[in-house]
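Section 3.1: Structural characterization of target chains.
Under the original work plan, the team committed to producing a structural model for every single-chain target entering the pipeline before any wet-lab resources were allocated. The record below documents one such target. The sequence was received from the expression subgroup and is listed exactly as submitted; it comprises 124 residues.
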Amino acid sequence: QVQLVESGGGLVQAGGSLRLSCAASGQTFSTYHMGWFRQAPGKEREFVAAIRWSDSGTYYADSVKGRFTISRDNNKNMVYLQMNSLKPEDTAVYYCAGRTGDYYGRSSTAFGSWGQGTQVTVSS
């Protein structure tokens, strides 16, 4: 399994932007399906975005579609989440996750590798 480390979280005002990064270790990163999840206090972990390894196809939660963009750089073993037009309801701990093989769903249980999370706080 790959090891994942997130960075880039912080405090931002509503309407602002942040870019989260996820550094992966392991030689098979390019074949990993990668995703971002988030968990707000008192709530369950929820899917945010994912990117397939085979064709770099992406899909998003409805709540972030049009505002967030997931991307990957296989040469650098990196995954990114560009977050624009942030809202207070985006406040959460954001987790990078990975799994082998393509996946078209949104379940966190399908991902076997997880980072430690990075806090994103959006003030109103």
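The two ends are 39 Å apart (CA to CA).
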